[in-house]
Amino acid sequence: MASNSGLVPVDRAIAREACFTVPVFLTRAAYDDCVAWADADTHRTGVPQEEEGRLWDVLWLAQAAVADLPLWLELSDPGDGVTFTVHRVPRDLDRFRLAELEDANALAQPVRLVIRRGAAYMLLIYFAKAVA
To answer: Would you kindly state where each structural domain of the chain is located, as residue ranges?
Structure first.
């Protein structure tokens, strides 16, 4: 699924399952931060995750962000975006830091993403910035 370019396409079947009818892309930064996960990440963090589940979280939350805007896709300008928050386990978390956390819910760190319509009638999800 990952691409070497600056954009990572989302499999059309997965996008449709998340109720997106047009192609969806994530920027490389958003993909690497919020979706990418390997066995080495599980070993380092001690937290089992799956890339497909992390992608589903991003897509579902993006869909929820625009669901109350019925004509958003058709009427929005390509530059208009809707911001939403994803709580994900950071890939750079290590077991030692994990042991210091008093609350297991603190594992999931918030990240702000933006979904917007691209110029070619596609959707783009990109990394906004970490929530302070």
So the answer is: 7-130
